[in-house]
Amino acid sequence: MRMSLLPAVALAAVLAAAPPALANVPLTQVSADPFTNSTSQHATEVEPDTFANGTTVVGAFQVGRFFNGGATDIGFARSGDGGRTWGAPGFLPGMTFSSGAAGSPFERVSDASVAFDASQLRVRMNLDPRMILDATDQVA
Description:
Elements: H1 2-17, E1 45-53, E2 56-65, E3 71-79, E4 90-91, E5 113-117, E6 122-128, E7 131-134, H2 136-139
Antiparallel strand pairs: 1-2, 2-3, 3-4, 5-6, 6-7
């Protein structure tokens, strides 16, 4: 028993003596919630997903989070220089009636993910296992 504790004690001593990490990474706000519907929390953009291909980075996130799940819309932002600068953010059109899309039957959306389809050079945003959007024109 005594021999099995020795590696754990040694590791704990090394970690305790390690200096703190010194990262100097600036934070950059890439979007802001533009919606005002009374059914969700505003000034919120949560549950992001990102994907990078070369120096292009695309992020997608929920905007206007509902208290019990889902969001008013899905936002996205794109950088063409590895994240040093970002273009104007966008919001997927026609997603929910709570975002102002009168023809939509949906109140909320959720779980955005981003992927790059190299065979077709397309950006895909998956909002649900049954719904995949070709977002290339949106984020270009």
